[in-house]
Amino acid sequence: MVTTTTTSSSATGSRSESESEFRPTGPGRKERVSPLLDTRGRALRDIRFSVTDRCNFRCVYCMPKEIFGRDYAFMPREELLSFEEITRLARISVANGVEKLRLTGGEPLLRKGLPELVSMLSELRTPDGREVDIAVTTNGSALGHLAADLKQAGLKRVTVSLDSLNDEVFQSMNDVRFPVSKVLSAIDVAQEVGLGPIKINMVVKRGLNDNDIVAMAEHFRGTGHILRFIEFMDVGSTNGWELRQVVSSAEVLARINEVFPIEPLEENYSGETSRRWKYKDGAGEIGVISSVTQSFCHSCTRARISVDGKLYTCLFATGGHDLREMMRGGCSDEELEAKLAWIWNSRTDRYSELRMANTPRQTGKRIEMSYIGG
Ligand code: SF4
């Protein structure tokens, strides 16, 4: 939504003057465009689109086989947002301050024609004419085949999930006997086509793969890739999460520091989920994502749109806002924009802060990560 040159917070939702951008509206004319702010002053900067609820893995902390078995009813194709609908929502979000778009799932590379969607999104520009940062989070299983097409289409970055180098452990975690070697070679292909440095996400679960922390660090040291250790989270309602299964980031860093001395790095930007560390000997960077022990709700700038077009303002949400119905009901862009502004302006989410303070959190069934994307 736009405000004319000099206004402060207009009737169209609360915005921050300081973060305003300007977009040209004609010779010598420009309009101020400011990001949307929630009730805690957090700007909406990132949208994660889940483009499929399907996955070819059954990671025990995300899509346990017992729940997502052979008879699990995944969403029929006509229920999924089309590429045009995703691009429309992205266009309106980018016009309102969003700078990063991440495609997730399930496994996003299973969505047929994904490079075409990337190409449509890469046409978008921020109000001041900059390219939008488009990224994908994948399990790597199809990355080797699609990396070149995705890069060609305009993909900027890729994050690959890899929870262990030990085949037995990795296959017990993905629960479909998918080998480590195939993920590693896909990472090499992605690097070769220019999608590097690659971010590697390792979800650490005590008693399952925590013995592999140092081995993973050793493997990716000196490669230029950025290995991030993610604390096991109580996402959704099916992964049987218990606090005793969490290996805190502090413990992860201590284990690594014993073998490979590390020191902290500045954040790249406000709202970055990963806390950055570097090896003292110059062998590169690692990160920790500590939703359980060091919540980052205070600077959370992310919204998520599910595969069927519901907008969620928190990974641990129990309910969302149906934008698909509005679009298929023939609403205008202005109506969608007003809805987006209203949703974000009334956002109060801080689930991880509450969990950390062990205070009562919202009741109700949390949405599955495979449905709204991580
Ligand atoms: S718990 Fe919710 S509000 Fe907090 S950082 Fe995660 S997504 Fe953001």
Explain this structure.
With 374 residues, the protein is an alpha/beta fold. The protein has a single domain, classed as TIM Barrel (Alpha-Beta Barrel). Helices cover 27% and strands 18% of the residues. The strands form two sheets. The chain has a twelve-stranded mixed sheet with strand order 9-10-11-8-7-6-5-4-3-12-13-14. Strands 1-2 form a two-stranded antiparallel ribbon. A hairpin with an 8-residue loop joins strand 13 and strand 14 (321-322). The relative contact order is 0.15.
List its salient traits:
twelve-stranded mixed β-sheet; 27% helix; single chain; alpha/beta; disordered N terminus; globular; binds iron/sulfur cluster; 18% strand; 374 residues; TIM Barrel
Q: Assign the CATH architecture.
A: Alpha-Beta Barrel
CATH-assigned fold name:
TIM Barrel
Beta-strand content bin:
15-25%
Output the CATH class name: Alpha Beta
Oligomer: single chain
Order of helices and strands: EEEHEHEHEHHEHEHEEEEEEHHHH
Q: What's the overall average pLDDT, rounded?
A: 91
Number of domains: 1
Q: Please tally the β strands and state the result.
A: 14
State the CATH superfamily name: Aldolase class I
Bound molecules: iron/sulfur cluster
N- and C-termini, Cα separation: 28 Å
Task: Tell me the helix content.
Answer: 25-40%
Question: Which structural class matches the secondary elements?
Answer: alpha/beta
User: What's the overall geometry?
Assistant: globular
- What is the rounded Rg? 21 Å
Return residue spans where pLDDT drops below 50 for at least 5 consecutive residues.
1-13
**How many distinct helices?**
11
Strand order of the largest sheet: 9-10-11-8-7-6-5-4-3-12-13-14
